[in-house]
């Protein structure tokens, strides 16, 4: 039995992955943005090990969330599932970060740095990462004119790069990125062609399976198959420069073992 923490697990793919992992006998720590959502989740998923709360748009709450997870004990896996798309990622946070960047990129970076190293890390990306801009001089959209779709693609390119960079620097941790496809969720919309059971399968498999494929690291996965990501994401130089940029934005450092 594995102990697994999943961000953004009160709805959508995160909740579906949690329910699947719980059904398989694993212990799952759920995450909700606030106490109101956590209370509803307790009723919906009473078999969860526990629920932690924190607004991932705020670095202060993200650090607190990491502390809450560490207080539970070591995690076998962490699934960085939470993410924003479209209008929900517009605007600036109270800490003056792009909301999209804060939730989709800064939060998983800070949680990776601050949660005690698990055995496995899974980062949710998207096929749209192939349209991401590889520039690192304005991750927080302080100079560019805001473009929601471009910002989303950028964060998904950067999260693949983060997953692969962590895999290089932490050889004892299995770190992978996942493209779940265009899934029929609240975020994906009613016209999405992929059902939620199919969309959640790869992240749960990478987090807990003993299959040979799931015990590999540094991969970009879609529909249970490893694929080649966009070139910048696979570049060691780009990944290391991304870490430096994220450190500058968050004042948090990821230790490197390699």
Largest beta-sheet details? 8 strands, mixed
For the biggest β-sheet, the strand order reads 3-2-1-4-5-6-7-8
Q: How far is the first residue's CA from the last residue's CA?
A: 29 Å
| Structural class designation | alpha/beta
- Give the overall shape, derived from the CA principal axes: globular
Strand content: 5-15%
Q: What is the helix fraction of residues, given as a range? A: 25-40%
Q: What is the count of DSSP helices, taking H or I runs of 4+ residues?
A: 7
On the 0 to 100 scale, the average pLDDT is 93
* Unreliable spans: none
Radius of gyration: 17 Å
What quaternary form is this?
A: single chain
**Could you tell me the number of beta strands?**
8
Keywords:
8-stranded mixed sheet; 7 helices; 258 residues; globular
What does this structure look like?
The protein is of the alpha/beta class and 258 residues long. Helices cover 40% and strands 14% of the residues. It has seven helices and eight strands. It has an eight-stranded mixed β-sheet, sandwiched between helices. Strand 4, helix 4 and strand 5 form a beta-alpha-beta unit. Helix 3 runs parallel beside helix 4 and helix 4 packs parallel to helix 5. The longest helix has 22 residues.
Brief summary:
The protein is an alpha/beta fold and 258 residues long. The chain has seven helices and eight strands.
